[in-house]
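Q: Could you fold this chain for me?
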Amino acid sequence: MTTHPEILWAQRSSETDEAKNIVYLTVNVIELNQDSVQYDLTPTGIKFTGKSGDKTYAFDLTLFAEIDPSASTHRLTSRALTAVLRKKEKKAEFWPRLTKEKLKVPYLKTDFSKWVDEDEQDGEAQASFEEDGFGGGGGGGPPGGMDFGNMMSQFGGGGGMPNFGGGDFGGGGDEDDDDVSPSGGAGHDHDHDHDHDHDDDDATDVTAAAK
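A: Sure. Below is the predicted structure, expressed as structure tokens.
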């Protein structure tokens, strides 16, 4: 029987800098059999299949807008597949969601460890993508030295946290998680804070080939 893995995502946007016009993606599968992984990245979507023990995990998502597979990267470990997807079109605005259609996807959630408001991107320290591909925080912490505790306190401990996840992604709840919005936009609720550390010792960096 096939199971959907937990998928975390966040993003950055830029009209001028391609390196800052990206989507962060983390597919969490504990004790992932790396030899079983099939990862297919196209300009319009992502397909993933992998095994952990006797369980098979898979998903097939059509992205909100096109990406450049040749400029995108991914890393595989025994705990997760992490990727940096390069958006094809350089725009200052965030994608409103990860998926093309506005769907309820319970296993797709906001990655708060990489979260930043759209209007606060310019104040963020330059991410060291060359080192770890995910903002220089090899330990999985917030990029650019962002104080996550302060951010949480601004929204009353998380209850009023804006929802910038991908589509009506409610994580299984009744609230809508789907449309991306900076704090000044439409409000969104998130029930979970995910901060995943990944074992870099067995990580393998791979550049996804354009399909």
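A (continued): The chain is about 5% helix and 30% strand.
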